[in-house]
Amino acid sequence: MDPVIDISHWSGNALNFGAAAGAGVQAIVHKATQGNAGVDPMWAVNRPKILAANLKFGSYHFGNGSDGGSQAQFFLSTVGPNPGELLALDLESNPAGPSMGLEEARAFVTTIFNAVGKWPVLYAGHSFKDMLNGSADAVLGNCPLWLAQYGPTAVLPPGWTAWSLWQYTDGAYGAPPAVPGIGHCDREKFNTAAGALADFWASVSL
Questions:
Q1: CA nearest to 61, candidates 47, 43, 49
Q2: C-alpha pair distances (Å), 163 with each of 18, 109, 144, 146, 186
Q3: 5 contacts 182 by C-beta, under 8 angstroms
Q4: Residue 142 C-alpha from the chain's centroid
Q5: How many Å apart are CA 178 and CA 55, to the nearest integer?
């Protein structure tokens, strides 16, 4: 079983996190916020259940085209932040309106760093590679990479020599088995070359 999965309210409201932990899942990253006002309704419900199952917990923010610093402050005010809980920015195309660009993403991650002293994880894939247009970004390159790349090969954006997490399937691509207690969902490999999962989690938490 992959050590990390990510979920949101789209995953449903009858999840069994103990079953997931028993099958080998070690950590869950949950959508927390979007833009300047959106809160995932299942974040506050699932967080204590995930922690009670002795799983590592993380929160991610789905960025949009509004001010990046304000989005980061909204994210932090919603999630705590809490010691030992991963923080991440989901940087991808927004189907419901303006997408977050590089400038706002820089403002977001810098605001997080200034608040907690750690760079958040950056979830990014094809659209981010298009934005970079072949050039590394000096600010975003500080963030550990959570690569979104479905398929058998991880192709890194410029500025990174390795991924920390790799979302290689949405639970449908490649027809992996369902995660016990959760069902078919986004699944992540962890790059053990970087050390233990617990050490990585601590490096991107308060």
A1: 43
A2: 28, 17, 7, 6, 16
A3: yes
A4: 15
A5: 18
* Residue type (1 letter), 115: A
Place of tokens 């979007």: 34
- The residue-averaged pLDDT of 161-189 equals 97
Rama region for 80: left / alpha / beta (φ>0; ψ in -120 to 50; rest) = left
Can you give the C-alpha Rg of the chain in angstroms?
16
Are 87 and 79 in contact, with CB atoms under 8 Å apart?
Answer: yes
Question: Half-sphere exposure of 82 toward its Cβ, with a 13 Å CA cutoff?
Answer: 10
Which of the four pLDDT bands, split at 50, 70 and 90, describes residue 27?
A: very high
Cα–Cα distances (Å) from 66 to 58, 70, 94, in that order, read: 23, 8, 12
Reference 88, options 140, 44, 152; nearest CA is: 140
* Range(s) of the domain holding residue 74: 4-203
Q: What CATH number does the domain containing 61 carry?
A: 3.20.20.80
CA nearest neighbour of 163 among 127, 121, 203, 201: 121
Q: Which two tokens stand for residue 96?
A: 């419901």
The count of structural domains within the chain is: 1
Check whether 11 has a pLDDT greater than 80: yes
Q: How many Å separate Cα 141 from the centre of its chain?
A: 16
